Amino acid sequence: MGLLNVREDIENARRHDPAARGALSIALTYSTLHAVWAHRVNHRLWHAGARSIARAGSQFARFMTGVEIHPGARLGRRFFIDHGMGVVIGETAEVGDDVMLYHGVTLGGTANAAVKRHPTLGHRVLVGAGAKILGPIALGDDVRVGANAVVLHDAPSGTTLVGVPAKPVARTSPAELPQIEYSI
Asked: Family per UniProt (predicted)?
């Protein structure tokens, strides 16, 4: 976790949360950022072969933050969890850049075998509070998932999914989505 990522994460929190006050306050009080920062360390340990230490670290981070991220999961840049209590991200989950999750989201598996069993989220995906995305499915870029939706199937880019089980209600071209500018 380099200094650049920490600054980028703090600025990203400021962009996503109108209640964010200052860089120091964000760095000290945003438990979801602490969970992501701990994940980066645990992910490196996991891939360096120190899997027991990585798992212990991820469980400690869960205890401290209420966010459970398996050290094998892959998270993109500017990943943000708003009010993250109860978020669970499984081992083979892959999350693109500029993704935002709300509290209670699960990126869960549907198999007990050592295979790809968790979802893959594209870039700029937004997942509403309490949503469950289950299995080795793929959500394209710019997908929106409504609160409490249960997603069981792939969705192409620009789709909005709602309901149980989730169904598409709209597709939006990337040009129609609000554009976020990032500076480093």
From this structure: Belongs to the transferase hexapeptide repeat family.
